[in-house]
Every structure is written in structure tokens, then in C-alpha cells.
């Protein structure tokens, strides 16, 4: 596979540029919106805060929180997608494609509808359980048959599980219409209206998963050589695979608990990273983290302006970007590789 940055020095430069790009869009996200805020005012809001100025309050209480959450969710989903594509050796793997997001969402709907769960900590653990159950179901269904697990079968299993959980969630809302407004919070998939109180309970798990994932690059490279070769090199392949699966559950489940079901970030970003640095996961992982955070922030900025003064759900923006990319991958037949 051809990629742009072949030398280590170029990859380092690209990583620095990606960081600067992320910082630039992070600042733009704080400044742009229904109320335009200048860079000087943004700076003053942080270093010379005046609670009597509306713009300062907007920056501190709304824009900053929204941007931080978008960055964390984008990073998490991108890393989850990168891990899943390596684990399944399937370029179409992503938390939304394989039903993991839908599983987390369905379990939250069940908890809200039948058990009146209303705490963020409760949503977090329920999302983790839902993501884990969905992942196991997809793996089980994709492994059925004499040929065992295959890229095509696991994609079909993921699509089936995703459709099943979404249908069940919608059915529960029909039964109990009073819960619709509460559950729409997650169905829409958005970072608007979220606050740090929603992120903080989940953050230790997401941050821990991100940090551990950054150290899995070498192990994933060996795993991609094939199980037999990896075992011959002394790698405990089962341990690596289990760790990767747990990280996916924490990253995807935590993202759904905070922002709802947001698609295609986990699909697009790992391909972008591999297009830049190749298949070396020591580089793919940090690039995916930065590019995922940046792309989510860009999508959120776009969501503010499409139907201003209302905010479009960010899931609509990511789908708008992701669907053509999904079709492109499928048409090239990459899923068969």
C-alpha cells in the first residue's frame, strides 16, 4: 500500500503538523458559532475573565466544554476503529458498522425505560456492558459456519446486530413515549448541550484506554503478521486480542455514554492515518488519535452553521462525510482483503 510519509523524519513532521492543525481547529471551535467571538476576546476569556461579559461566559461555560468533549469523543472513536480494523483485519470495521455503538445505545434505552436510571455513572457502566455484549454477539455470529470468521461474514453480522438493537430501541420508545425526550439525548448523537459533569465520570476509563492503546502499536504490528508468526515470535496473541477488545469497549461505550451514537469517525480516520504513514501501528495509533479529534471538531463546527440558529446533530455531519468514503472502500473491494 502506498502512503505519503515514508521516512521517520517525515512522519514526525506530519505528527507535529497534525497537532498544530488540531490546535487551530480547537481554537476555531471556541470562536465560531451563532455568537461570533474574536480571538482577542477568546484569549481574554481565559486569562482576563470578566463574568459580566456575555462572550466570556459563552467561551468558559459552553464553547470550551463542547470542544473538549468533541475532541475526546473523536479521538476515542478513531482509536476504537483502528483497533477493530487491526483485530478483525477488516478495513470496514468500526464501532458503528459492527453494532457496538448500537448495543451501548440499546442498553441505555432499556435502563432509562425500565429501571429509571438517571445518573451518568449508571449510563457509563450500562454503555460498557452493552458495547461488550454487542461485540461478543457480532464475533459469535461472524464465526458461525464451516469457514469460521471472515471479513464479509463479520460485516454482515455487525449490520444485523446494529439493525436489531436500533429497532429494539425504537420499539421501546413507541411503548413508552414519555421517555422519548430523555432518550433522544443519545439517539441524536451530538456534543451540543453536553457538560463536563457528563464527561468526567467516563474520562478516567477513556483516558486510560487511550494511553494503553498508544503502547499497543508494536504488539499489533506483530499480530498483523499472522497468529502463527506472532506466536513463533513469543507473543501472547490471546492477551493482545483481549486487551484490544477491552479497549474498544471502553472507547466506544464511553463515547456513546457521553455523546450518543456517532458514526463513521471510526471508519474514516484509520484509513486516513494509514494513507499518511502506512500500516505501522506505532504511527497509525497517534495519527488516528489526532485526526479523529480534529475531524470531530470540524464536524461540530459545520453542524453549527448548516441550519443556524439551531444545531444539526453531529452524527448527521459525520454520516455526510463518511457514507461516500464507505462506498469508495466497498467499491474497491477492500473488504475482501
From TrEMBL:
<comment type="similarity">
    <text>Belongs to the binding-protein-dependent transport system permease family. FecCD subfamily.</text>
</comment>
<feature type="transmembrane region" description="Helical">
    <location>
        <begin position="68"/>
        <end position="86"/>
    </location>
</feature>
<dbReference type="GO" id="GO:0033214">
    <property type="term" value="P:siderophore-iron import into cell"/>
</dbReference>
<dbReference type="InterPro" id="IPR037294">
    <property type="entry name" value="ABC_BtuC-like"/>
</dbReference>
<feature type="transmembrane region" description="Helical">
    <location>
        <begin position="238"/>
        <end position="265"/>
    </location>
</feature>
<feature type="transmembrane region" description="Helical">
    <location>
        <begin position="285"/>
        <end position="307"/>
    </location>
</feature>
<dbReference type="GO" id="GO:0005886">
    <property type="term" value="C:plasma membrane"/>
</dbReference>
<feature type="transmembrane region" description="Helical">
    <location>
        <begin position="202"/>
        <end position="226"/>
    </location>
</feature>
<feature type="transmembrane region" description="Helical">
    <location>
        <begin position="314"/>
        <end position="331"/>
    </location>
</feature>
<dbReference type="Pfam" id="PF01032">
    <property type="entry name" value="FecCD"/>
</dbReference>
<keyword id="KW-1003">Cell membrane</keyword>
<feature type="transmembrane region" description="Helical">
    <location>
        <begin position="12"/>
        <end position="32"/>
    </location>
</feature>
<feature type="transmembrane region" description="Helical">
    <location>
        <begin position="154"/>
        <end position="175"/>
    </location>
</feature>
<dbReference type="InterPro" id="IPR000522">
    <property type="entry name" value="ABC_transptr_permease_BtuC"/>
</dbReference>
<feature type="transmembrane region" description="Helical">
    <location>
        <begin position="123"/>
        <end position="142"/>
    </location>
</feature>
<protein>
    <submittedName>
        <fullName>Iron (III) dicitrate transport system (Permease)</fullName>
    </submittedName>
</protein>
<keyword id="KW-0813">Transport</keyword>
<keyword id="KW-0472">Membrane</keyword>
<keyword id="KW-1133">Transmembrane helix</keyword>
<feature type="transmembrane region" description="Helical">
    <location>
        <begin position="98"/>
        <end position="117"/>
    </location>
</feature>
<dbReference type="GO" id="GO:0022857">
    <property type="term" value="F:transmembrane transporter activity"/>
</dbReference>
<keyword id="KW-0812">Transmembrane</keyword>
Amino acid at each position: 500500500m502506498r502512503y505519503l510519509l515514508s521516512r521517520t523524519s517525515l512522519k514526525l513532521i506530519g505528527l507535529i503538523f497534525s497537532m498544530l492543525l488540531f490546535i487551530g481547529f480547537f481554537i476555531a471551535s471556541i470562536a465560531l458559532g451563532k455568537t461570533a467571538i474574536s480571538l482577542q476576546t477568546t484569549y481574554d476569556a481565559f486569562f482576563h475573565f470578566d463574568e459580566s461579559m456575555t462572550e466570556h461566559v459563552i467561551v468558559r461555560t459552553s464553547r470550551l466544554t463542547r470542544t473538549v468533549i468533541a475532541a475526546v469523543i473523536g479521538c476515542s472513536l478513531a482509536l476504537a476503529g483502528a483497533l477493530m480494523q487491526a483485530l478483525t483485519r477488516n478495513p470496514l470495521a468500526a464501532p458503528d458498522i459492527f453494532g457496538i455503538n448500537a448495543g451501548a445505545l440499546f442498553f441505555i434505552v432499556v435502563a432509562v425505560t425500565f429501571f429509571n436510571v438517571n445518573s451518568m455513572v449508571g449510563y457509563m457502566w450500562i454503555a460498557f456492558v452493552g458495547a461488550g455484549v454487542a461485540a461478543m454477539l457480532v464475533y459469535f455470529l461472524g464465526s458461525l459456519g464451516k469457514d469460521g470468521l471472515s471479513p464479509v461474514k463479520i460485516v454482515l453480522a455487525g449490520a444485523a446486530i446494529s439493525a436489531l438493537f436500533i429497532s429494539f430501541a425504537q420499539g421501546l420508545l413507541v411503548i413508552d413515549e414519555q421517555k422519548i425526550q430523555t432518550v433522544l439525548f443519545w439517539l441524536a448523537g451530538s456534543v451540543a448541550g453536553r457538560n463536563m459533569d457528563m464527561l468526567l465520570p467516563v474520562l478516567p476509563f477513556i483516558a486510560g484506554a487511550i494511553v494503553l492503546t498508544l503502547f499497543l502499536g508494536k504488539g499489533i504490528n506483530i499480530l498483523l503478521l499472522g497468529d502463527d508468526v506472532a506466536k513463533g515470535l513469543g507473543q501472547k496473541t490471546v492477551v493482545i486480542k483481549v486487551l484490544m477488545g477491552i479497549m474498544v469497549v471502553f472507547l466506544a461505550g464511553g463515547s456513546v455514554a457521553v455523546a450518543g451514537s456517532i458514526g463513521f469517525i471510526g471508519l474514516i480516520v484509520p484509513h486516513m492515518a494509514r494513507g499518511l504513514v502506512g500500516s505501522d501501528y506505532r504511527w497509525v495509533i497517534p495519527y488516528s488519535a489526532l485526526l479523529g479529534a480534529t475531524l470531530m471538531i470540524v464536524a461540530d463546527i459545520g453542524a453549527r452553521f448548516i441550519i443556524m440558529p439551531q444545531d444539526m446533530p453531529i452524527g448527521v455531519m459525520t454520516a455526510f462525510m463518511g457514507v461516500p468514503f464507505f462506498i469508495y472502500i466497498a467499491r474497491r473491494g477492500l473488504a475482501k482483503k
